[in-house]
Design a protein that fits this description.
Layout (H helix, E strand, L loop, with lengths): L12 E2 L9 H4 L6 E2 L1 H12 L9
Antiparallel strand pairs: 1-2
The chain binds calcium ion (2 copies).
The site of one calcium ion has 8 residues, from strand 1.
């Protein structure tokens, strides 16, 4: 899971921890350079709610 990417276990995934992956910018919705717990939670919800997409747009 994405949690495995959080190498220093601070609850955030930096672009460096993500290895500069292309999906990073998409997940970093507020563009602050880290994927934080709230953004991870949003991702988890998005993945678990396939029948209810587009609510954030
Ligand atoms: Ca981290
Ligand atoms: Ca962010």
């Amino acid at each position: 899971m994405l949690k495995n990417l959080d190498k220093n276990s601070d609850g955030n995934i930096t672009k460096e921890e993500a290895g500069g992956a292309a999906w990073f910018d998409r997940l970093d919705q507020n563009q602050d350079g880290v994927i934080d717990a709230a953004e991870l939670e949003r991702l988890r919800k998005a993945q678990g709610a396939d029948g209810n997409r587009g609510a954030n747009d």
